[in-house]
Amino acid sequence: MSIRIILADDHTILRHGLSKSFQQEDDFKVIGQAKDGRSTVELARELLPDVVVMDIAMPDLNGVEATRQINMECPDVSVVGLSMHSSNKYVREMFRAGAKGYLLKDCPFEELAQAVRTVVDGKTYVSPSVSQAVIEDYVSKPADRKSAFNVLSQREREVLQLLAEGKSTKQVARRLHISPKTVEAHRLRVMHKLEIDNLALLTKYALQEGLTPHEL
Description:
alpha/beta, Rossmann fold, Arc Repressor Mutant, subunit A, 11 helices, 6 strands, 54% helix
């Protein structure tokens, strides 16, 4: 029986390339593709794949938040992070969100295939290159500063990401199915918690924290 996979990445060429590689393996079947975190969650909810191969830096909803929502709503779906980021912060937050694996985008396809098979067997997979990077990062910066993932609530992070991506208050409200007044309340709480008093600095913070991709 084939391992059913959803590919989540905002780069169409990368998704299509991975899809072709997976389809050449007898035990894999790509059943869906998504270009942002929110549609990835919706697709996972609808199709209930065995594995989601998840990029971190995606628009609308980043990979960490998407992983967290999938883990809560579809606990039988395993998420494998596939990212260009090797720092301790990203790896830690992905696993805290419920990911079962983490690799870098420059890894060989054979390693990604191994990771997918590993998590389907109920085990965790961390790329050796990521493991080394995490160790080096921990040694050089043992006292990691507080990040957006432990300072802000999930909803506050969602609002911050959408605002940082240029959405208006009304657009954010429609996207999250809440009132504009609620969006404003979240924005004010975010600014208070972060001690930031303008949108430009909020956007810079969102980029630094990996809440939104650097290329929008």
